[in-house]
TrEMBL record:
Subcellular localization(s) per the UniProt record: Cell membrane
Pfam family, one: MFS_1
Protein name: Bcr/CflA family drug resistance efflux transporter
Organism in which the protein naturally occurs: Couchioplanes caeruleus subsp. caeruleus
GO cellular component: plasma membrane
Domain of life: Bacteria
Amino acid sequence: MLPAGRRFRVVLVLGLLTALGPLTIDMYLPALPTITDDLAATAAAVQLTLTGTLVGIALGQLLVGPLSDAVGRRVPLLVGVGVHVLASVLCVVAPTLAVLGALRVVQGLGAAAASVVAMAIVRDLFSGLAAARLFSRLMLVVGVAPILAPTIGGQVLQFTSWRGVFVVLTLVAAAILASAAVVVPDTLPVAQRRNGGIVGTFRDYGGLLTDRVFVGLILVSGLAMAALIAYVSGSSYVLQDGFGLSEQQFAFVFAGGAVGLIGATQCNVRLLRRWTQQQILAGSLLAGLASGLVLLILAVTEVGGLVGILVPLWLVLAMVGLVMPNAPALALSRHGEVAGTAAALFGAVQFGVGALAAPLVGVLGIGAVAMAVVVFGGMLAAALVCFLVVRPHRLPAEQVEPVAVAGH
């Protein structure tokens, strides 16, 4: 069991690690229109650089998760974040959109190591309600990232080009790498490591995929992520091109949505004192579905203008903020013996499904209606999977406290 003081430092760095993915995704959002002009590309093509990042995160987790179960958490973590730093440096000098897109995939691969290992470490140290509470606390840090990232990106664009945004991202990733190297221990004892090789990895993945509830929960999380990514990928065009906001104004409005998401994740800790994870998950999906429907209606009818878009959109984000800590806590509590592999599959499906949202918004158009259609569709599909596949009302309530880790 980690001492209390050291545990606090580890949790803080875990928050920074889980923030690396959102920072990678969001920091360059205010620059999307500028990149479109500078590299003589279409908006849909530039949005594919966002998709590439999400695909990299999804694939990277499938690789890093089982590796962390076999060799421990620390080495895959440090190597992965190091790859991210190198890719960020190369993004600064990317000569074409194709090269930038390829490097964004590599960035995603590096960010995946930070995300999946952080989730696995949480499962090494906690389970059940304790894990859900910690996921909520980590979501506070993750939620701050979408607030800070576009704001930082918007401010950087006042003094330099979009390439300067990647300079800042390089420095942030390097600082996170240094912090992890100093603070994060290996929380997986040697005796608990799995050495089944490729065959064992496929066997573990196969076992996870036979668990209907686990698969349903990762689909629910992925579809909720798709609604979030639809907002992330489409909002810069909707708000800047459609409603005429400046890069800095967009950054502050974007931050408003992140505040709702952050607030919801922190309310989740209090809600868990009265309701189960299953009840919160079900209620948040129903509320998110209703908000998504209102968003779609107002976008189609053009009633309410900017406010008519932002208010229901922010409500959807808040409900996603309740889904995100509870779905992984419920899913990972079922497979603690392969926490890294389970976290990898969870994250891969979550970001893989989410990755489909960005090009879908681009195909449908870059207006408010296209974004609203994908947001509503994601929440509708998530709710259907939850109630038809997961069936949360039939799941036992978790009442599990933190678990000790031998030798740590």
